[in-house]
Each structure stands twice: as structure tokens, then as C-alpha cells.
Amino acid sequence: MRVTHWITTLCFFALLVTGVEILISHPRFYWGEAGNVLTPPLFKLPIPASRSSVPTGYGYVLPDQNGWSRYLHFEAAWVAVLTGLLYAISSVLTGHLRKNLLPGEADLAPRALWSAIADHLRFKRPSAAEAWSYNALQRISYLLVIFVLFPLVIWTGLAMSPAIASVFPGAVAVLGGQQSARTIHFFVSLFLLLFLVVHVAMICLAGFRKRMRAMITGRASTPMEGT
Amino acid sequence: MSGFSRRKLIATGIAATAGASGLAVGARLARRYGLLPPDGAGIYGLGETLTYAAQRVLTRHSLAREFPRSLISKTPFANGEPPTGEPFRRLQEAGFADWRLAVDGMVARPASFSIPELKSYPSSSQITHLACEEGWSYIAEWTGVPLSHVLDAVGVLPQAKYVVYFSLQRGWWDSVDMADALHPQTLVAYGMNGGELPVGNGGPLRLRVPRQLGYKNVKYVTRLTVTDDLKRFGKGLGSASPEGGYAWYAGI
Question: Predicted ipTM?
Fold first, then answer.
């Protein structure tokens, strides 16, 4: 199980770096089916581009790295999706989903949630016992990432493929078109990046070395047998 | 070291063996059914092979989406510059009356077609999306003769596996497998939005492969070669795209 986390980490960084590379070849976004430099954009990023055909207002063009970036983006996507499937299936089979990810009813009570939020806002470090299991906010955000953001980023990614669109035209139409899919893909990636930043910040707050050791070896410093 | 029990070790061993033999069987099956792309070696080979194999199975009978006339882009973007050399200029000045499309390779009757000859064949029109790998796109109505019709006219030999196509634009050539070559929406296009195909969009003749990205839709096409082996062309990767760092199969 733990190995799936680190494979996903590696894929995520590959997808992020290559995604940025692909994005800078056309840092403009549209809504609907089609859009190009002659079409008014929904919005554009105030950055230079790696292609001279895009009017950015900058007097220079960034180095173009689209070729290998695209190869790596799709390869990392394959590995991430297959790893994710393995994780999802084994989470159900081993009970990881039920025991560790689905929040308990008591955790979801407004008062419990509120106190968890307050603890986070005060940057209160978890006790050793608390660190051994995920708290309610962790559970909710992990579930959101695993069952909402990941599927959405895969769906919008596939919706940009002309071949996949030919097999599942409805999956593109529901999103509003191929350019809409690209725009949603960008925003979901931003949310995933936001999750990553918070995720890493929380690990640093909880004690980077201790948490890292636990995430790699599976052992917390004070194992709570039977909990 | 309770984490490395014998049971776990044996289970890991069995899983690894099963995985390795599964891969070997998979590779053999993939080769037999033509599911391996020509640029399937190297560090990106795994991703490319998975994409090509999966989509060859999935897209067997699929048609690229067609759109209502109201969705035709008012601003079809003409990317890049037309060929700058003397031969293209001379052909253009003569209204492309002398443009020829040569068809050779594994065919029974190699031939060369003028544009009026291509236009005399039954034409096909489609309102489809052309997407560039950069991220932009436009929708246009494309008119041309289905590539399958041209291939029928010259008699493709049964062992043919790919159609390689060459542009007058130096260094630009590509290829598709027979599944895409014979696909009803794959056109040798000579018209766009009811008129002649503009030079900026690939006129007088461009290949239209609507289930793949823009760069497979090679402009200024002058020659088609039918083959069973892409190794004999360029660096053996199937098209100029992998030589420039881009995937041969662009269905994504």
C-alpha cells in the first residue's frame, strides 16, 4: 500500500512539470468546443509562451519542450491511473477505506468538525496517539482527492483526446466541449497542487522526519498496538 | 524483521513471476494484432504502447464527433507558413493545375492523380474538430475524397500495414496504420467550408485524420506510399514527428 503513495508522488511531479511545459505552449483558455488565438479567450495567463504564434505581450519566446513533455505526461498518467486503481481496489478489500478513510459519524458532528478545524487553525500538533490515525479533516480531504479530484482530472484529460472523444462523445459534451475540458483540467490541477502544498505543510508541522519515517516504513515512533 | 516473513517473500515472488510472464504474453499478443507503435521502444515506450494498444481496441468502430454547421469556427487559424521554395510558388501561380498526388509502394497499380481527377471521385464532407497539440483548435467543414477510395483505385496488396504520406514542405512526412487509412472519415481533403482548401490550412491537398491531432493532418501532400514496414522510412520511427520528439500516434 505505502509503495502506491510514492509511485503516485513520482507521477504527480512528472505530471505537474510536464503539464506546465505543455500549458506554456498556449497559455490561453477557452470555453466550449473550439478556441485559438483568433478567438477571444475565457482568460489568459500573464506569462510568456513557448510558441511564437501566441500573442503574449512579451518580446521573447520560451524554450519549447512539448515533445518529451507530452510523452512523459501520458506515460506518468498511465502509471498513476494503474497505481490508483490498485490502491482503490485494495483499499476496499483490506478495509482501509472503511477503517481509515471514511470518517466516523461522531467525527462529522458539527461540534467535532469545528474543534478539528480550530485545532488546525491554532497549528496544534497531534499527540502520538492522534498521529497514528487520520483525523476527520484529513479523511475528508483525502476522500475528496481520491474520489473527486483524481477522477475529474482523468476524465477531463481523456476528454481532450480526439480518439477517446470519438468513442465517448457524451463524456466531452457533458463538460461543455473539448476546450472546456482543457480549462477544467487546468483548475482541477490547481486544486491538486493546493492539496499537495497543504499536505506537505501539515507533514512539516507534525514533525517532518518522524512522519517521513512513518510514511516510508509504516511504523510510527510509538506504535499503538491494537488501536 | 516481521515485515519480511517467508509468506510475504513467496507471495511477492509469485506475483513478480506472474507479472513478468504476463508482460511477455501481452507483448506477443500485441505484436500479432498490430498493437505496437513504431516509436514503442525507449523510456516512453510503455506509455505509448499502452495508449496505442488501448485505443486501437477501443476506437475500432468509432467516428470522430461531427458538429452542426452553427459550430463552424468563424476564425479557423492557419498555423505555420506555406512552403517557401520555388516549386510551390510556381505550382501556386498556375492555380495548382499541375499538382500531382503519386501513390506507390505495395499497390497493384501505382498511379498519379491530378486534383481534378481526385475531385471526380465521390466526395465526402465532415464538420469536425482540428486540435493542435499546443492546445488550440477550430471546427471546419472538410471536403475531400476518402483515402480508402484512393487506395481501392490503386489496389492495396493484402500484406500492407501502413500508409506513409509526404508533404512538399521539406522534412514533413507521417504515416497511419491501415485502421486509420481505411477509416471512413480519413480524407484526402481539397476543400474547406464550401470553398477550395486555403493554402494556409494546407491547400491544395492535405490529409485529414480527424481522430488524431493536427500534426498528423499533413499539409501539401504530394505522395502516398503503402508499406508493411516503417523501418525503411527516415529513422524508422514511422514519421517525422518522433524524430522531432513527438509521438507517432496522436489520438492521445
Answer: 0.90
